[in-house]
Amino acid sequence: MWNMRLLLTVICLAGCAAAQAQGGVAKIGSSAVWKVSQQFMATAHAACDKSHPGDVDCLIDQMTKAGAPPDAVSFTRTLAKQSHGEFGVMTGFQNQSPVSFAWITYPLRANTNYGLLLVNGQPPIVNVEDLKLLDTKTMEQSFQFQDLKNQFPKVNLWPGDRDGTTWPNSQTGPNGGTQFVVSYPLRNGCHACAHAGFAMFTWNFDAQGKFLGTSFIGMTSPPLN
């Protein structure tokens, strides 16, 4: 009997080690979705602002006290580590294979309170609003962008004003991969400055869900005055 238990323990430990070696990470799903209410934010501010203003650990503790599901709390904690302490809650999820969508609400932000993540691929979380990942070099060298600068000399790229309901379009990529088409606003120097149209990029994944980078695909014209 003891030999059998020892054998089962060894098999279990070997399986866990293999999963860790392969970068095994629990899949993100709809169980991590939680709605951020005004009542929660009022209670969280009252509890955290005096001694821990903006402290993500205090805010996460308030999520637990407010009855947020354990998966939602765990996801917010994981996101905070990746985003260097920003507080975000998953408020929408759409399951796809091999990469899924997660809408994030950032209640402490001043301007854009929604964000979009591509999850369950490799790496497990890819932030669509991380402008450093965009193929901006190709965009800036394009004739479209150069022409736009004649009209808007300070034009630059900004994170998307996501509404938390409109999912990106997907299309088949090379070798069985997947591409997601996402647009980003162009503004003439600041968030409140003149709107100069949108730039569109594809987020490229291979057939196994590995992130391959982004590609600039074009721009829309600025709105007519």
**What order do the helices and strands follow?**
HHHHEEEEHHEEEEE
Strand segment tally: 9
Report the helical percentage: 25-40%
Q: How much is the average pLDDT?
A: 87
Report the biggest beta sheet as strand number plus sense, adding barrel if it closes. 5 strands, antiparallel
Q: Give the termini distance in whole angstroms.
A: 82 Å
- Count of alpha and pi helical runs: 6
Shape: globular
Derived structural class: alpha+beta
Using the CA coordinates, give the radius of gyration.
Answer: 21 Å
Low-confidence runs (pLDDT<50, min 5 residues)?
Answer: 6-24
SSE diagram, text form:
Layout: H1 2-21, H2 38-48, H3 56-65, H4 70-82, E1 89-94, E2 100-105, E3 114-119, E4 125-127, H5 136-141, H6 143-151, E5 156-157, E6 169-172, E7 178-187, E8 195-205, E9 211-219
Antiparallel strand pairs: 1-2, 2-3, 3-4, 5-7, 6-7, 7-8, 8-9
Helix pairs in contact: 2-3, 3-4
Task: Give an account of the 3D structure.
With 225 residues, the protein is of the alpha+beta class. The protein has six helices and nine strands. The protein has helices spanning 2-21, 38-48, 56-65, 70-82, 136-141, 143-151; strands spanning 89-94, 100-105, 114-119, 125-127, 156-157, 169-172, 178-187, 195-205, 211-219. The strands form two sheets. Strands 5, 6, 7, 8 and 9 form a five-stranded antiparallel sheet that branches. It has a four-stranded antiparallel sheet with strand order 1-2-3-4, with helices on one face. The radius of gyration is 21 Å and the shape is globular. The model is unreliable at 6-24 (pLDDT under 50).
